[in-house]
Design brief:
- The chain is mainly α.
- It has two domains: about 1-180, Lysin (Up-down Bundle), CATH 1.20.150; about 210-350, no CATH class.
- Helix content is about 65%, strand content about 5%.
- The chain has 16 helices and three strands.
- The chain has helices at about 5-15, 25-50, 65-85, 95-120, 145-155, 160-180, 185-200, 205-220, 230, 235-265, 270-285, 285-295, 300-320, 320-325, 335-340, 345-350; strands at about 60, 125, 140-145.
- The chain is globular, with a radius of gyration of 22 Å.
């Protein structure tokens, strides 16, 4: 259903080259990013009180084509087993090998085109889904930083390079800490993604209907509407699952933004100026870029930063970091999207409802 080689070839062919950097500066940037990713680990662990259960070395630093290849590998690791299970029955049994091959190449080219756009914008990520090691062992995640994008943004913002690089590392290291301190979280996210795919009702007729909906979404955005392609391709069952995925990713992204800014003043002297300029850059895209961002759901991700950070900030201010960290205990303590928008409801459900220790508050029969 997806030609992964075509995705890589298309993405690496379409991606724009990074900024012009001489060899010495490029090597210095890579070396410093690796060093600062390790520095950030200590700051994040100390501030959050979370203890990673897996060893964490320096981040992997890549260029734009390297980011594309890594993400295709990740998509393949998590999607291929599910797509194989869906098989031809979901896309119509009448399709023959020729049409299937053509369709897989088209899908691969579409994925590659999307990744080529994102590869010029992503500063870093914690890769949850990696191909198994040669011995079949499922690997832990991998922290990746995209050096040319970091250099390009720090130049555009005209900020101190070291401060900006550490600031970015604080955010991405927070993600690594989230998933390595709570090993159930990776399986939970992967399970939700697989469940969403399996909830698809994509027979041939439904697929054509979704394509029409996608076309309507493009027209709506061009006219200034709020549609996006993610919503256009959802079934009702998938929408419910996506709400759960959105909630946990909003929490994760908001937590990363909260930590990077809260830790920042003590270790990143220019953090306030970096945040101000970075936020202005997020909001200042041209019209074409805004349309693409909305269609791909990137504007939704930006909203996740804001809503998630507001949730974390409110909860920490009211009950402290240790009680906030109860969000990571199990799927049942994760906030819903409604709770993220109303932090007090999460506090009431999870923190205030904590059972009293045995014997506390109980009156004996003789009293």
């Amino acid at each position: 259903m997806i030609d992964w080689d075509v995705a890589v070839t298309t993405g690496t062919r379409l991606v724009r080259p990074g900024p012009q950097v001489d060899i010495a500066d490029a090597r210095q940037a890579v070396s410093q990013l690796r060093e600062l990713s390790v520095t950030a680990q200590g700051h994040v662990t100390e501030f959050t009180g979370m203890s990673p259960l897996e060893p964490a070395g320096p981040a992997v630093v890549v260029d734009r084509p390297g980011w594309i290849r890594a993400n295709v590998e990740g998509f393949r690791a998590v999607l291929e087993p599910i797509l194989d299970r869906l098989g031809s029955s979901r896309l119509g049994n009448a399709t023959g090998p020729v049409s299937t091959a053509v369709g897989s190449r088209v899908t691969g080219a579409q994925l590659g085109a999307v990744l080529s756009y994102l590869a010029g914008r992503v500063l870093g990520q914690y890769e949850l889904f990696l191909p198994p090691d040669p011995d079949g062992t499922a690997p832990t995640g991998r922290l990746t930083l995209v050096a040319p994008n970091i250099v390009q943004v720090e130049r555009e913002l005209e900020v101190d390079p070291r401060d900006f690089r550490l600031w970015v590392c604080l955010h991405e290291e927070t993600h690594r800490t989230q998933f390595t301190s709570n090993t159930w979280l990776r399986e939970y996210v992967q399970g939700q993604m697989q469940e969403m795919l399996l909830a698809s009702d994509m027979d041939a007729g439904a697929f054509l209907e979704r394509l029409r909906a996608a076309g309507d979404a493009v027209v709506d955005v061009m006219r200034g509407g709020n549609a996006n392609l993610i919503e256009a391709f959802q079934s009702p069952a998938q929408s419910e699952i996506l709400d759960r995925i959105t909630a946990v990713m909003t929490l994760a992204e908001g937590h990363g933004d909260y930590v990077m800014d809260a830790v920042g003043p003590s270790v990143v002297p220019s953090v306030a100026e970096i945040r101000r300029r970075f936020q202005r850059r997020r909001e200042g895209a041209n019209q074409v870029d805004r349309i693409i961002r909305q269609l791909l759901g990137i504007d939704l991700k930006m909203k996740q930063y804001e809503e998630g950070a507001a949730f974390v900030r409110t909860v920490v201010e009211q009950v402290g970091m240790a009680e906030f960290n109860r969000v990571w205990e199990s799927p049942s303590t994760l906030p819903t999207m409604d709770e993220i928008r109303d932090p007090q409801s999460w506090i009431s459900r999870v923190v205030r409802s904590r059972p009293l220790p045995e014997g506390d508050g109980q009156v004996s029969a003789g009293e």
